[in-house]
């Protein structure tokens, strides 16, 4: 297990400071605000701490309200909206400086039998082991900028292997523009069997590349184009159990952008082709001078 993953797992081990109130911290970071996937993952951990172990999260719906400040802790207040015979509903508010920066509603469900079908087929893509790492691909693209090289090649908790062009590649070559992105990812460690942990780690990873799918369609890239962006909302549905320490293919597309906003949606498949997660996100994409 690399140090970046150890740090992430430590960040997800929230401190309980009162009944249904938890405190989380952020990694020391100078380049960006608090990562949205981190806040979503920590909020889901807080909710899960208040739910019986026999109920697994099946959906979440979240709004990013204000930028997070990485220099101060985040307080998560959990409201117990409903505890039914089969479903449990929680509302989580993340607070910094006395104001809400993020809200989430999460629903948990006991395991039940039912009708089953899967209309989505996993895209035909190369095996992840045959693809270069994200760090290897970004090293050359960062050029002679030492700060960018350090940022793009630093150890990360998630091993991501891109099937599709990177935004920086499409920025330099317009022929690579596309409104679709396929990325293999996994956490390189033997993780505990806790189902909530694997869902939380998928939520964390889900926010890495969705907005990039919008940028890819226009040949734009963070740090290279005159853009300012931020996640606005995020929704996920968890269909069946999976492991985040096994390869998952994250197939994404952006069906629309306009009015300084863009929509992206994704599906996560196991290596055997089972659809395990569906994701939708809207983001602000604002052109700057």
SSE layout:
Blueprint: H1 3-12, E1 15-18, E2 21-24, H2 36-48, E3 55-64, E4 74-83, E5 87-96, E6 99-110, H3 134-141, H4 146-153, E7 159-162, H5 167-172, E8 180-186, H6 195-206, H7 210-216, E9 227-238, E10 248-258, E11 261-270, E12 275-287
Helix pairs in contact: 2-6
CATH topology of the largest domain: Thiol Ester Dehydrase, Chain A
Number of strands: 12
**Beta-strand residue fraction:** 35-45%
Mean pLDDT: 94
CATH hierarchy, class of the largest domain:
Alpha Beta
Total of helices: 7
Task: State the fourth-level CATH superfamily of the largest domain.
Answer: Hotdog Thioesterase
**What is the alpha-carbon Rg in Å?**
19 Å
**Which bin fits the share of residues in helices?**
10-25%
Query: Largest sheet, described in full?
Result: 12 strands, antiparallel
Which structural class fits the helix and strand makeup? alpha+beta
Shape: globular
Query: What is the H-and-E element order?
Result: HEEHEEEEHHEHEHHEEEE
Uncertain segments? none
- The spatial strand order of the largest sheet comes to 1-2-4-5-6-3-9-12-11-10-8-7
Please describe what this structure looks like.
It holds the Pfam family 4HBT_3. Belongs to the C/M/P thioester hydrolase family. One of its GO terms (molecular function) is fatty acyl-CoA hydrolase activity. By secondary structure, the protein is α+β, with helices and mostly antiparallel strands. The chain folds into two domains: 1-112, Thiol Ester Dehydrase, Chain A; 130-288, Roll (Thiol Ester Dehydrase, Chain A). The chain is built from seven helices and twelve strands. The termini are far apart.
